[in-house]
Amino acid sequence: MLEGDFMKELKKLNSAQIRRMYLDFFKAKGHTEMPSQSLVPVDDPTLLWINSGVATMKKYFDGEVVPDNPRMTSSQKSIRTNDIENVGKTARHHTMFEMLGNFSVGDYFKEKAIPWAWELLTSDEWYGLDPEKLYITYYPKDDVAKEVWLKTGVAPDHLLPNQDNFWDIGQGPSGPDTEIFYDRGQKMNNLPEDDPESYPGGENERYLEIWNIVFSQFNHTPEDTYEPLPNKNIDTGMGLERVVSIFENAPTNFETDLFLPIIKQTETFSGEKQYGQDKTDDIQFKIIADHIRAITFAINDGALPSNVGRGYVIRRLIRRAVVAGKKLNIDEPFLAQLVPTVGEIMKDYYPDVLKNAEYVASVVKSEEDRFSSTLNGGLNLLNDVIAKAKADQTNSIDGKTAFKLYDTYGFPFELTREYAEDEGLVVDEDGFKAAMTEQQNRARNARDVDNGMGVQNDLWTDFKEASQYVGYTDLVVKDAKVLAMAFEGQRVDTAQAGQTVEVIFDQTPFYAEMGGQVADTGDVIDNYGQTVGRVVDVQHAPNQQNLHRIELTANLKVGTRYQLVVDQKRHQKIEKNHTATHLLDQALRNVLGGHTQQAGSLVEQHYLRFDFNHFGQVTADDLQKVEDLVNEQIWREIPVTTVETDLESAKEMGAIALFSDKYGDRVRVVKIGDFNTEFCGGDHVNNTNELGLFKIVSEAGVGAGVRRIEAVTASDAFQFMQERVTLLNSVADQLKVAQLKELPHRIEDLQNELKQVQHANEQLEAKLASQQAGAAFDQVKTTNQGTLIAAELKVAGMDQLRQLADQWRQKQQSDFLVLATAVDDKVNLLVAVSDEKSHQVKAGDLIKAIAPAIKGGGGGRPTLAQAGGKNPAGISKALQEAADYLNH
Q1: Which of 36, 181, 559, 823 lies 20 to 30 Å (CA to CA) from residue 591?
Q2: 3-245, CATH topology level
């Protein structure tokens, strides 16, 4: 078929219309539209990011959950970073992309999936693509798929067998697949038409793969056999970015409405650099456009820059984009300004991105500023190293230098390697790792290591007898059996008074430290009512039993039964603070926005500490709103209930989960009326009224994008307030105010009085200064350069010296003025030069010459300069040196 025979024109569809048309088509075929899930997989610890459409459907395909409708469709945002170095260098590599998909869980199969795909692609009601431009590949042994395609109307010469058309990722569901390619014409090809790779499925730019339909019909067994699945499934994936490039006739995905607005805005930052003029520059434009999309969506979904996990991915993407900007001569922070543009592009399907653009931009700006502050130094070093390597013809960068770039300038190793590869150099990765290990060892050796309960040694690894925690309902256990005990790293059967031991009981009311809540303390009592020891800490053993640290006051034996009594008063205070933490978490979300997420917590006896993600200051007004909202829930006397349920049911309840936490099949949910519902394994009050009062003690930033609130409840809150009242009463007594409500007025009066006194004092000082200056200004000396007035005055400081210099300039009493004053052990020195003489002698030069006499330094403009010093005894010398300077 010749290119000229392709007569059917493409519809004019933008990315939003293409996405919506796909979803609407399958909804018309009985599918339920599933929302695009968060990029952060909150219930799948096997994934760092959601990396495909089917990743959100795993629970349905593996039978864990039965879907309400076995037919589903979605447009799922996804992130893949395994080939990040190729982004910008190829036509279609992206870190974030959208995967359009339709799924069948044990419902329809090839007989429906194939005709529907053809209908969507070719029907004038839908995409209306020219059938002559579509080519299909299939697995050679899949005769059913071949026959269905032929019955659907695909021309035999457009249907090609391909041995690679089999989807298999190891044990689990697998099966043949069929791929659909769009012929973009030879003009789009990067190969000659007769090249061996110039065919649908080959490595070329002409035939673009747009859709993969997987027929999941086998189970790949551990024995490496393929057994038929009882329920066959359909899993498809169509890359939105690729399809858009077809409808917009774009050479690559980047010349589409999904990326071009970002590129065009980046051009305005770059100035003379324009997209499409230079291939090397184009790579940088593409990197920026791709990365800011991924960064924006990831942060909007709750991930934040850090040094580990997905946070490191975001940090790396930001740094790669900043470096790309440097290569385009963009020296000022710019990435944050692109965030609203991403939001505008994607607002049709992802309105929350535009809604949260200000917050996302603040996160990006903070991280960008941090990196930019050290980037120039790192780039200068790297460029020098590259130049030296080329000059020496070593063609490599040593590991220590790469580590210095990482440790001092924040350059990820991957960034250094990419930079080097662009220059034809390699980096010593083994040397980098060795330098990293050396630093980690130094840090480890410098640390104060607590070898107590925080470190669980090997002696507990194989101990698997069950231990039951009953502290949710009982704070006393009357018959707890000692299952095992250890002393100084060795398992023992008996221990003596004075020893500190680790003990596991068959049941316990003592809470083991977890989820920010500190461990319970209390007593171990024998059958005679005598205290055997004090429980000072409880941690989890490797197999999750509660491991008690006990300071013994009497002997303890394995196999013996004891009474365990939790310190009830302390426990109840901790419960109050834990419930308050949940109230605070929800209040912050309500007041500051849904982007706030818990970043850590500590629930102690006398206070609570709560860290949360939020960029920028929390205003006093917002902080008061948060505190008021928490107290409102306390005074509403809301019942606090807990329930154990399965993970999916908990999510349907709207329970808040932490991205960093892993949850099992059964979870515990704490519900505070209709105000807050969270996953939590900790202890809580029965009703919010038990908290009595909530008071925020402090709020501050503790890291990039992380804020910390410390607060108190109940009696501790009352005591905190009482201390403030006592302090106010003391101030009232000192100010002789009868009632506290009069304090603000009295303080205002005092401030006004103080201002009046200060003003009168300033006037008096100015008058005295003028009197001194009057006498000094009469002492005019003649030098070779002109007339000079040089004097030491007793004035308040530099401000008054400048005022006197203004008077001198108005009266034109000499060509040069040098004044000095000493206040305590500090010296202020001022030099003024008339306009006529400033071209001859500059004030800045003169003050630099005489400032060393007062052990100081300074500078300024040609007509006025000032200096500070710490040697009052050198004033007379400085004044003499001024005369000497002008006499030369």
Answers
A1: 36
A2: BirA Bifunctional Protein; domain 2 (3.30.930)
C-alpha span between 54 and 28 (Å, rounded):
21
3-245 and 777-887 in the same fold: no
CATH of 458-566, one of 1.20.1110.10, 3.20.20.10, 2.40.30.130, 3.40.50.300: 2.40.30.130
Superfamily of domain 572-722: Threonyl-trna Synthetase; Chain A, domain 2 (3.30.980.10)
Q: What is the amino acid identity at position 741?
A: K
The type of residue at 232 is K
The dihedral sign for the CA sequence 243, 249, 251, 256: negative
Residues 6+ apart with CB under 8 A from 99: 52, 53, 75, 76, 78, 237, 238, 239, 240
Distance CA 716, CA 735 (A): 29
Is the predicted pLDDT of residue 142 greater than 90, yes or no?
yes
Strand arrangement of the beta sheet that strand 676-679 belongs to = 640-646, 666-672, 676-679
CB 366 within 8 A of CB 704: yes
pLDDT band at 65 (very low <50, low <70, confident <90, very high): low
Residue 514, classed as helix, strand or coil, is: strand
Query: What is the distance between the alpha carbons of residues 256 and 275, in angstroms, rounded to a whole number?
Result: 13
**571 pLDDT above the threshold of 80:** yes
Radius of gyration of the chain (CA): 37
Annotated binding site for Zn(2+): 578, 582, 680, 684
Question: What is the arithmetic mean of pLDDT over 329-341?
Answer: 93
Range with the poorest average pLDDT among 399-413, 599-613, 806-820 = 399-413
Query: Distance (Å, rounded) from C-alpha 125 to C-alpha 309?
Result: 45
pLDDT tens-place string over residues 292-321? 999 999 998 878 887 777 888 898 899 889
Please report, rounded to a whole number, the percentage of residues in the chain having pLDDT higher than 70.
94
| 3-state secondary structure (DSSP) of residue 609 | strand
Q: Which residue has the tokens 């939590």?
A: 680
**Which amino acid is it at 212?**
N
- Which alpha helices (DSSP H) does 227-308 contain, by range? 240-247, 260-270, 279-300
Q: How would residue 176 be classed by pLDDT, with cut points 50, 70 and 90?
A: very high
User: Rounded to 5 degrees, what are φ and ψ at 80?
Assistant: -135, 130
Do β-strands 531-540 and 494-495 pair in parallel, antiparallel, or remain unpaired? unpaired
- Segment of 448-457, 558-567, 591-600 carrying the highest mean pLDDT: 558-567
Indicate the annotated binding residues: 578, 582, 680, 684
Task: Spell out the residues 6+ positions from residue 518 whose beta carbon is closer than 8 angstroms to its own.
Answer: 574, 602, 603, 604, 605
Smallest Cα–Cα separation from 258: which of 533, 555, 19, 61? 19
Integer Cα distance of 200 and 159 in angstroms: 10
Which segments of 215-259 does DSSP mark as H helices, in order? 240-247
- Given a cut of 60, whether residue 417 has pLDDT beyond it is yes
Where are the chain's structural domains?
3-245, 260-446, 458-566, 572-722, 777-887
Q: Which fold has domain 777-887?
A: Diaminopimelate Epimerase; Chain A, domain 1 (3.10.310)
Is residue 121 classed exposed, middle or buried when 0-12, 13-18 and 19+ CB atoms within 10 A define those classes? buried
Each residue of 140-153: b (16+ CB within 10 Å) or e?
eebebbbebbeebe
